[in-house]
Amino acid sequence: MSKLVIATRESRLALWQAEHVKSLLEARGHQVSLLGMTTRGDQILDRSLSKVGGKGLFVKELEVALEEGRADLAVHSLKDVPMDLPAGFALACVMEREDPRDAFVSSRYAGLAELPQGAVVGTSSLRRVVLLRAMRPDLKIEPLRGNLDTRLRKLDEGQFDAIVLAAAGLKRLGLGERIRVAFEPEEMLPAAGQGALGIEVLSARRDLLDALEPLSHHATALAVSAERAVSRAMGGSCSMPLAAFATFSGEFLQLRAAWGDPEGAVPPVRAQSALIAADVSQAAALGTAVAMRLREGGAR
Ligand SMILES: NCc1[nH]cc(CCC(=O)O)c1CC(=O)O
């Protein structure tokens, strides 16, 4: 069968994800190799992502490799993939989702409620900041960047009383025991696409669709399509605190979303809706409808 090259970032999580796709494809008879590369997002570690150009930072170099024919596939955490891909690129495959929740990580405290008044919590996600503030306005929330190992090290060095990370990344790296408690979506609604992997290809590469089809996961694709439609309709960038989380069971797609005021002047606006969805365009329509409800509720 075909020989495929996967372009990947070189963080431990990105490599795990690329290896995961590699082994799934190999099990189906393909020959696969990895092409590791460093992206702008990996180089810029001192500033909040929202200030330096956003989600595209982790994706651009991988797209150049696809364009130049040095690689066939790029594996991404969907959360980091911009809503609209550049012309000529397509999200060919959405894979089964890992745990979509956010995780409370701390060595001293068992959960948010145990944190003392004014405790220091690390996160650079604006979504996590506004949702944490809504639950615990007293906390001191401080920026936390770097790859997963760096963030855990900063916690272990005592720079924070607790940090918040995606459960999916920790579990993939075998660090699931660091999770003291996973936030229920009612408390901290996940980001669009959190926990799901997507495979990007050049749109012209119809030849790859057959190889990728067995890796795609219908329920995840529907959920993520609804979530990403919320972000798209809200003009979502990572400078907007936005959460969107959908679940699909039976034929029923349920979507919840939350918008936070970046200045924190008003509490988060929440909206939800559900419908029977059979394909990704119906799922996206649900996302658009929920975005409209957010706006009606005061989201900008
Ligand atoms: N923003 C970085 C990022 N992109 C994807 C994940 C975790 C894995 C996932 O959501 O699939 C993380 C780390 C985090 O948010 O803690």
UniProtKB/TrEMBL annotation:
Q: In which pathway does it act?
A: Porphyrin-containing compound metabolism; protoporphyrin-IX biosynthesis; coproporphyrinogen-III from 5-aminolevulinate: step 2/4
**Cofactor binding remark:** Binds 1 dipyrromethane group covalently.
Q: Name one GO cellular component term.
A: cytoplasm
Q: Which InterPro entries match?
A: HemC (IPR000860), Porphobilin_deaminase_N (IPR022417), Porphobilinogen_deaminase_C (IPR022418), Porphobilinogen_deaminase_C_sf (IPR036803)
Task: Enumerate the spans annotated as Porphobilinogen deaminase N-terminal domain.
Answer: 4-207
> Any idea which UniProt keywords this protein has?
Porphyrin biosynthesis, Transferase
Which positions does the record annotate as the modified residue S-(dipyrrolylmethanemethyl)cysteine? 238
Q: Would the keyword Cytoplasm turn up in this protein's UniProt record?
A: no
Give the enzyme class.
transferase
Q: In the record, what terms sit under GO molecular function?
A: hydroxymethylbilane synthase activity
- Domain named Porphobilinogen deaminase C-terminal: residues: 222-295
One GO biological process term: protoporphyrinogen IX biosynthetic process
What is known about its subunit structure? Monomer.
The UniProt record's further free-text remark is: The porphobilinogen subunits are added to the dipyrromethane group.
Q: What is this protein called?
A: Porphobilinogen deaminase
Q: Which organism is it from?
A: Caenimonas aquaedulcis
Its encoding gene is what?
hemC
